[in-house]
Specification:
Length: 132
């Protein structure tokens, strides 16, 4: 199983990042954390790189269900979504939630992971129908 799902968008990074936040919200995810990797690498290491954000997306009902199965699942939460520049395009990648089942070996997490994956896939799919 691939550990991520992705889409490539023909639009500027800033516009894509805003659209990703909106698409996640539409699927019931809030962005709990936002890490600007580009700024961090520049400030801490003096290194230059493409625009790169890591969004920590959480769907509270799904997180609650997962925690009800396994309290340690918080080690794998929230769902990370990466938005990164790639030339004139922007790549959006999300961690495949079904990896939780593989990592933990807890089959009881499968329905939660399936729903999270469906919602993330719907969010990514919605981005491809938007115009630049």
């Amino acid at each position: 199983m691939d550990y991520g799902m992705s889409v490539r968008l023909d639009r500027p990074f800033g516009q894509a990042a805003e659209q990703v936040r909106a698409a996640l919200k539409e699927q019931g995810f809030g962005v709990l954390t936002e890490i600007d990797v580009q700024a961090t690498m520049r400030e801490k290491l003096g290194e230059q790189m493409e625009p790169y954000l890591i969004l920590g997306a959480c769907n509270p009902p799904l997180a609650h269900r997962a925690l009800g199965v396994d309290r340690r699942i918080g080690l794998l939460l929230p769902c990370n979504v990466v938005v990164r520049g790639d030339g004139e395009q922007t790549v959006v990648e999300a961690l495949e939630p079904r990896i939780m089942v593989t990592v933990t070996g807890q089959a009881e997490l499968d329905p939660v992971a399936q729903e999270a994956a469906s919602r993330l896939e719907a969010a990514l799919d919605s981005l491809t129908s938007l115009t630049a």
